[in-house]
Amino acid sequence: MASAAQITANQANARRSTGPKSPEGKARSSENSRRHGLTAACPVVDPAQSAAFDEYREALLLDTQPEGPIEEELFLRMLTSGWNLRRARQFETSLLETANLAENDQDAARLSRIARYRRELERSYERALTHLQVLQTQRAILLQRPAEIIDTVAKFTPLAALGAIAPDKAPFLFPTHQFGSPRATFYDSRNEASCAAELIREQRRNAVPPTPEEVQAVLNNFCMSAKAFTAA
User: Fold this and answer.
1) 155 and 92 in one domain?
2) Nearest-10 Cα torsion for 203, 204, 210, 216
3) Are residues 43 and 112 part of one domain?
4) How far apart are CA 148 and CA 194, in angstroms?
5) Residues contacting 78, CB < 8 A, separation 6+
6) Rounded CA separation 197/190 (Å)
7) Is 20 within a domain?
8) Distance, CA of 175 to CA of 63 (rounded, Å)
């Protein structure tokens, strides 16, 4: 543990180290964090690469189709990591073609540093992709359920892992069947399902109760269908 005298000496040394003083030195220092931008939180796009970046972003957006702020955040992570990963490979290729790695230690160190950034970007991209796949898989499963189930889950447990709620082969994960005929609806979004659920609730509130004769007719039809199914 440092003593009080050592701490005081370190603070005095830090105050004396004020960085570059000349205009040229300050200019070089200000560019240190922007030499390659591979660790930047946002994509670094040169004017000459703006068209390529726009094309990459649109293609990635088409491939991922994020919905909601969480999926959009994962998309932005993929966009940043993927774009910087392309730039890191370009830096590596350029260095390998022009640098003298056997005799120039600085070039060798720079190549090693860029390779480290590339590996970190690959891991970041893969993590974002995996998380986005999980979220979209859950969303795809949910959007096949009845509108009221979608509405309830989206409101109260939007991040629920549906595979943990029911076994893989439970009916919750597959279209329901009635008398051997598939019956399933696939909604485009949770908002669409919520609107459908509200419409169903409104119809139920305004529905006229069936008469005893209508109830008996439904029961008779059910019994006839059951007998025909058993006989077949």
Assistant:
1) no
2) 110
3) yes
4) 7
5) 60, 64, 125, 128, 129, 132
6) 10
7) no
8) 26
Q: Which DSSP helix (H) or strand (E) runs through 178? A: strand 176-178
Mean pLDDT taken over the chain? 74
How far is residue 180's CA from residue 182's CA, in Å, rounded to a whole number? 7
The pair of structure tokens assigned to 131 is 């998380």
pLDDT of residue 66: 93
Please name the residue that has the structure tokens 């970190």: 120
Residue 132's pLDDT band, with cuts at 50, 70 and 90, is: very high
SS (H, E, C) 181-195: EEECCCCCCHHHHHH
| Largest CA-CA distance found in the chain, in angstroms, rounded | 98
DSSP-assigned states of every residue in 193-204:
HHHHHHHHHHHH
Instruction: Give the total number of structural domains in the chain.
Output: 2
Is residue 135 domain-shared with residue 156, that is, in the same domain?
A: no
Hey, is 11 helix, strand or coil?
A: helix
The Cα–Cα gap between 131 and 137 comes to 10
Q: Which domain holds residue 216?
A: 143-164+180-231
Q: Is 200 within a domain?
A: yes
Q: Over 60: is that where the pLDDT of 11 sits?
A: no
The CA distances from residue 22 to 16, 31, 55, 143, in Å, are 16, 15, 42, 63
Mark whether 104 and 148 lie in a shared domain: no
